[in-house]
Amino acid sequence: MRSKTAFGWEPLETILAEPNIRELLTSYWAELSPVKHLPLDVDWPRLLEWERQFVYRVWVARVNGTMAGFISFIVQPHYLHKNTMFAVDYGHYLAPAFRDTGEMVGARMWRSAKAALIEGGVEVCFLHDNARRPLSPFFLALGARPFSAMWLWDLRGEEATP
Fold first, then answer.
1. Domains plus CATH for the chain?
2. What digits encode the pLDDT tens for the residues 28-57?
3. Which of 117, 108, 7, 118 has its CA nearest to residue 67?
């Protein structure tokens, strides 16, 4: 039986009230953070302020009502293209329990987010990949193309963990 899956923009206050949000964020940090020597310390007031300014948005995937994953975006005109709305992937995650289930929750989450961004007037979106769990083939399958590489340079002298 196919699960009931829903996708959409959700206010950060709704997300923060989610029963599994701490588990989801801790899993995200544990699996993907290249700077594990730094504590997870989210600046919620700043994100809430950005959300009030319509700069920070979170696209959520829910499976049978449970938050399965998210893609957060910074959405604003680019400094070099002031009349063009850009979105930057500010963090994304799909909980392991919802991967490889045959229901393609991750692909559907990204495709529906793309449609919502287009509907919201976004013309360009930068997605980021992670060396700890590369998604390059997945992003290529979605129609994205390589643009740049980001490199971590930890100026405190700690070694980066791939």
1. 5-141 (3.40.630.30)
2. 888 888 888 888 899 999 999 999 999 999
3. 7
